[in-house]
Amino acid sequence: MTTECYPTVSLDEGVQLAYESMRAQGQTHNMAEMLATRSLPGLRTDATLMANAPKRQPLPREHYAKAKAAGVVTDGKFYDHQAARFPGDPEAWISGYGDYKRICKKNQWGLSGDVKNDIKPKEVAAKVDTQPYTVADDLVHEEVTRMGQEDPSLVSSPKALKRTTEAVRKRVSGNQET
């Protein structure tokens, strides 16, 4: 069984699943992306952004207070937490694609999707946990179950199940050598 690796077209799991399903059925990338995200090519204007903006969710009063203190008028804008550097960031009030470009340029954030730029994403050093830890039993069980579905011989007898479980626990638990 081969597994295709498709690009991420949406962080919404339902949209991504629809995209991957269409690709697996032979649809082209562009058509599958358009249908899954329900967005037509060439209709990426500030007006369409605002028309399809997230419905206003109740925001903490502090968000409005921070915007007002920074001189940001929130009328006709929506708050996008994904564009915020911190909760309540007054720069995260969006009225068009230009706001995304401005925010990302200022913060050196790479963009892809409806809005793109040439900034390479910053590499973040992986945080290495230096303390030993053991993964929870339920997570080990999930991994053993998944592996057993792919290769039943790994769980075909009590001895095989025990050997597989111990191997998984050792593989997914961290820093046991210290």
Summarize the structure.
With 178 residues, the protein is mainly α.
List SSEs in N-to-C order. Answer: HHHHEEHHH
The domain tally reads 3
Report mean pLDDT, rounded to a whole number. Answer: 83
Query: In one word, what is the shape?
Result: extended
Question: What is the rounded distance between the termini?
Answer: 38 Å
Q: What structural class results from the helix and strand content?
A: mainly alpha
Kindly report the spatial arrangement of strands forming the biggest sheet: 1-2
Question: What percentage of residues falls in helices of 4 or more residues?
Answer: 40-55%
- Rg over CA atoms, rounded to whole Å, is 23 Å
Total of DSSP H or I helical runs spanning 4+ residues: 7
Number of strands: 2
Beta-strand fraction estimate: under 5%
Oligomer state of the chains in this structure: single chain
- Indicate the low-confidence ranges by residue numbers: none
Could you give a short account of the major beta sheet? 2 strands, antiparallel
Written overview of the protein:
By secondary structure, this protein is an all-alpha fold. The chain has three domains: 1-41, no CATH class; 48-107, no CATH class; 126-178, no CATH class. 43% of the residues lie in helices and 2% in strands. The protein contains seven helices and two strands; from the N terminus they run ααααββααα. The protein has helices at residues 13-24, 29-37, 46-51, 61-69, 97-107, 137-150, 158-172; strands at 78-79, 93-94. Strands 1-2 form a two-stranded antiparallel ribbon. α1 runs antiparallel to α2 (29-37) and α6 crosses α7 (158-172). The chain starts with 12 loop residues before the first helix and ends in a 6-residue tail after the last helix.
